[in-house]
Predict the structure.
Amino acid sequence: MKSLTRYIVSSYGGKAVKRKAIEDACRKFDAVTVNTVNYMISYGYLVRILRGLYYVKTLDEFSNKKAIDAHRVISLGLEELGVNWYFGLNTALRMNGATHEYSDTVFVVNDEIYRNKEIRIARSRVKFIKIAPRLTVFGVVAEDGVRYSDLEKTLLDMIYLSRYRSVPEGRIALSVEEYARYADREKVGEYLEAYPLSVGRVAENAG
């Protein structure tokens, strides 16, 4: 292992870092940042999260070729960026135990990052969805550094984003009604104050 690689792994292993941290390390070793990043990604020391944001594997993860948990890596990265975020939609349904259906796309709802297409992070397909900041600060469960919307917020987000895409209200109601019966109506009513009136109308029709 190169001295610079060893330094970065020992300093940041198990953490998410911005490009500046890599640049500072390269400066100490008189190395070119872009070459170092490309080398460490190609050999599996770094996992790219977003442009200029990386997860550094621990020596144990690298040496033993351990699988990297995409949810954990994404969580570390977004906390490093300081954005308001949570796992939402189908990902949150599963985390809430509302469904056992597996979705091969990880949905990340936040107030800053948008990607038109899915991207790959730690071998997982990830979709970043940007919503208004006011909708990211409530109804979020935090467990072991992982954030996800509770069931009530998940359903309202599904309705809200479907309405934004001009999906017919009847079809939206059908898509959420099987989960709506498990939702806390009082909590739904409280959360609805932050959403457009049309969201409440669909939520009522969904039961």
The chain has ten helices and nine strands. Strands lie at 15-18, 46-50, 53-56, 85-87, 105-110, 119-121, 124-130, 140-143, 146-149.
